[in-house]
Amino acid sequence: MLEQDVLLDLLARKDNRAYQYLYQCYYVALKALANHYVKDNDVAEDLVQDVFISLLESDYKFKTENDIKYFLYSSLKNKCISHSRKQKVRDKYYQDVVSSLNEEEHFWDKVLEEDVYARLMAAIETLPPQCKLVMIMTLDGLKASEIAERLHISVDTVKDHKSNGKKKLTAQLKDAELLCLIGFLWL
Question: What is the C-alpha to C-alpha distance for residues 123 and 19, in angstroms, rounded to an integer?
């Protein structure tokens, strides 16, 4: 154990014995405190090393060992706060990137969906008027009985229009996605 006067003199002269002594005295406590705040052993070690580097680079003239202790703990506190702020920025950036990727993926899914829908609607427009109405109402989710009632036709006529429309659309649209959609919508 170094006397306070000897420690302060060695530290003022930047003698390695002072740093070794302080390292032995405070490293374990500083690391435990840092680990408590950052929850990562490797980061805690790095922060404590940074504190000792700050002490080594400091030109401050310490008057007591308590001044040194205050310097070490307050430096560690500031480094932990700084690390936490940087980590929050990194985490937010990461979340923004992930969100952006999800939004971009959703965007392209929506583009594809709209493209398929536009092509399907363009093909439906080429159908005979009554068949076209039946197909559009089917797309709107109406049942055959509801379509028959609205158009004042029989349910069998609705089924015939759906069957004929499906055949004509299948012949026009050769894409696998569109054929699958036609099959799904008008089973």
Answer: 82
Q: Over the stretch 33-86, which tens digit does the pLDDT of each residue have?
A: 999 989 999 999 999 999 999 999 998 899 999 999 999 999 999 999 999 999
Q: How many CB atoms lie within 10 A of CB 184?
A: 8
- Say yes or no: 40 and 65 in one domain: yes
Question: What span, in angstroms and rounded, lies between the C-alpha atoms of 164 and 24?
Answer: 88
pTM, full prediction: 0.52
3-state helix, strand, coil in the chain (%, to 5): 85, 0, 15
Find where tokens 């952006």 sit.
100
Using alpha carbons, list the distances in angstroms from residue 60 to 8, 68, 71, 186: 11, 10, 10, 82
Q: Which of 33, 108, 110 is nearest to 75 (CA)?
A: 33
Q: Which of these three, 93, 115, 149, is where a domain ends?
A: 93
Question: Quick one: DSSP state of residue 3?
Answer: -
DSSP classification of residue 13: T
Low-confidence ranges of the chain (pLDDT < 70): 101-102, 104, 174-187
* Segments forming the whole domain that contains residue 64: 4-93
